[in-house]
Amino acid sequence: MSVLFSKNSLDKVAEIISRYPEGKQKSALLPVLHMAQDEFGGWLDVPVMDYVATLLNIEPIEVYEVASFYSMYNLKPVGKYMFEVCHTGPCMVSGSDSIIDYIKQKLNIGVGETTTDGMFTLKTVECLGACGYAPMMQLGKHYREHLTKAKVDSIIEECRAKAN
Amino acid sequence: MSRKLLLEKEHVENIRLYDVYRREGGYRSVEKALKSMSPETIVEEVKKSGLRGRGGAGFPAGLKWSFIAKPEGVPRHLVVNADESEPGTFKDRYLMEFIPHILIEGMIVTSFALGSNVSYIYIRGEYAWIVDILQQAIQEAKNNGFLGKNILGTGFDCEIYVHRGAGAYICGEETALIESLEGKRGNPRIKPPFPAIEGVWKRPTVVNNVETIAALVPIINDGGDEYAKIGIGKSTGTKLISACGNINKPGVYEIDMTISVEEFIYSDEWCGGIKNGKKLKACIPGGSSVPILPANLLLTTAKGEKRLMNYESLADGGFATGSMMGSGGFIVLDEDQCIVRNTYSLARFYRHESCGQCSPCREGTGWMEKILLNIENGKGKISDIDLLWDIQRKIEGNTICPLGDAAAWPVAAAIRHFREEFEWHVNNPIECLTRNFGVGHYADPIHIPELV
Ligand SMILES: Cc1cc2nc3c(=O)[nH]c(=O)nc-3n(C[C@H](O)[C@H](O)[C@H](O)COP(=O)(O)O)c2cc1C
Ligand code: SF4
Ligand code: FES
């Protein structure tokens, strides 16, 4: 895969840069890294980060240090679908442990692992601001809330169906 | 029924859309402020309203705005803090997701009052779908002449941009947020200089919570004095509370800060009581950073008065017997919950979220997590409890930003009020793996609600 944004994405990058003052294009780093991660396979490989550095006219190290600081940037490949289950206090008292155990057993992976077919990754994350709708997880752009074992089953099926 | 100012229209169908919001009286405050008020009079109204910051610290908003520096030729910025990552807190999300225009409306008025021609919403990265909702609301406001150049023909220009974070609790701290907005790691800055003097791109900057800015709408529409009539003492206006944990009706509620904690938990208008008919054991009333209270101290203060859902009453007794309003993240624990495990979970959170700049926070949060996990797993010693106490004391007050305190307080309060349960864990290393301590003397075993 060559590391090059599409014309549309480049226009979008230019629009994002224009939101910040002249010469402060580094401010666009977080949004542009999100775009890069979405466009280049769900994680930030070194060539991708270097490309972003070139686009924003900053040093590669400035990109690496940011990419490694924020939890939403993946520095390693992840599965096509990432189950990010919250396990912080409020979710824990509302039953997140048993949901995590169930997903582990169902997908036969541990936390932080990816299924051998590259389909699913299981991650535990800290509070996502959905504590009243616990247990919950993030799946792509959206939240899945009030999780039950049956709901987990249907989410897994839904992902498999989408992938086919 | 509690009076609603922010969520009054929450059940109006399609209130998320500009046309509906406008038809329901939206954007009147922009017309009033820009056409008939000066920036100074707006700040005066906010001072009169007594509005306190809704992000956690409760600092008076009008006072904060009066500190903003106005050097000649240097742009100023309003940055709305929508990072909302404090465990237990999900109120800003609710407001932005369902009534996004109230935030945009409040931001236009505030931008005018502060002289900010370009304002930003810093939103946590995980709220990705809300970014779209906000961007649509901004576009609609722009199409209708409430944003852009020469708003309503008054000569005031204003743009609002949404800046998406990428997963870091620390970026809710205002100087870390500013660093993040500049495209850097979220390392808090040493203050002074305060953001009002030197904020984003070294320009004077005001950072306020989403709910604080939304409150500008009723304050401008009805006047600061009217707003101040709601509530008690220095807890004026209404507060959004996000209630979660072991209750029948988790959700976001707008309260007028005159109701008691007991009513809030047991009335069907709010939490609807403890789930499955269980007993109330403990509660963290203002987001994970504030001290946990056992049921008896939660419902009544040490003086024996009913505790109310407001800044003063929740803090009554200081940390010895009280807690804090904080962000309004109200976490309820029933008799089946283990205090050690809950404290461990929060300690892990703070270790994960520490930016690592100061050694007391970086090292201390790691130590606390490890010790708590040991106790939780039946491998602790009685001296560990004292060690925990000692570590939290060494973190508190010795760090660049308040995350250190936020990590120390939950541990301190858990030991202060539930030491017996920690000791039980140590003394019953096998049993603690299979059952919980239960309620103990500190809970409220036979609660008879009066008002329900
Ligand atoms: C570790 C930490 C996290 C914070 N997180 C948030 C947050 O998510 N949202 C927020 O509004 N304020 C948060 N704050 C408070 C902000 O620093 C700041 O006080 C607040 O945004 C000011 O707005 P207000 O006066 O309207 O409350 C946090 C503070 C600390 C120390
Ligand atoms: S207290 Fe913790 S989070 Fe705050 S600056 Fe220091 S190390 Fe970073
Ligand atoms: S604790 Fe899980 S979403 Fe807040």
Key descriptive features of the protein:
heterodimer, A: 164 residues, alpha+beta, Glutaredoxin, 2 domains, 4-stranded mixed sheet, 7 helices, elongated, B: 452 residues, alpha/beta, Rossmann fold, Ubiquitin-like (UB roll), de novo design (two linked rop proteins), 3 domains, 5-stranded mixed sheet, 4-stranded parallel sheet, 20 helices, 43% helix, 12% strand, binds flavin mononucleotide, binds iron/sulfur cluster
What's the helix count of chain A?
A: 7
Instruction: Supply the CATH superfamily name of the largest domain in chain A.
Output: Glutaredoxin
Strand content of chain B: 5-15%
CATH architecture of the largest domain in chain A: 3-Layer(aba) Sandwich
CATH architecture of the largest domain in chain B: 3-Layer(aba) Sandwich
Work out the oligomeric state of the chains in this entry: heterodimer
Strand ordering within the main sheet of chain A: 2-1-3-4
How many domains of chain A?
Answer: 2
Mean pLDDT across all amino acids of chain A: 97
Low-pLDDT regions of chain A: none
CATH class term of the largest domain in chain B: Alpha Beta
The N- to C-terminal Cα distance of chain A equals 22 Å
Largest sheet of chain A: 4 strands, mixed
Outline the secondary-structure elements.
The complex is a heterodimer of chains A (164) and B (452).
Chain A: H1 7-17, H2 29-39, H3 46-56, H4 60-67, E1 81-86, H5 89-92, H6 96-107, E2 120-125, E3 137-139, E4 142-144, H7 149-163
Parallel strand pairs in A: 1-2
Antiparallel strand pairs in A: 1-3, 3-4
Helix pairs in contact in A: 2-3, 3-4
Chain B: H1 18-23, H2 28-36, H3 39-49, H4 61-66, E1 77-82, H5 91-98, H6 100-114, E2 118-123, H7 128-143, E3 159-164, H8 174-181, E4 205-209, H9 210-214, H10 216-222, H11 224-229, E5 231-232, E6 235-236, E7 239-245, E8 251-255, H12 261-266, E9 280-284, E10 293-294, H13 295-299, H14 311-315, H15 318-321, E11 329-334, H16 339-353, H17 359-376, H18 382-395, H19 403-427, H20 431-434
Parallel strand pairs in B: 1-2, 1-4, 2-3, 7-11
Antiparallel strand pairs in B: 5-6, 7-8, 9-10, 9-11
Helix pairs in contact in B: 2-6, 2-10, 3-6, 5-6, 16-17, 16-19, 17-18, 17-19, 18-19
Bound molecules: flavin mononucleotide, iron/sulfur cluster and FE2/S2 (inorganic) cluster.
Iron/sulfur cluster binds next to α17 and α19 of chain B.
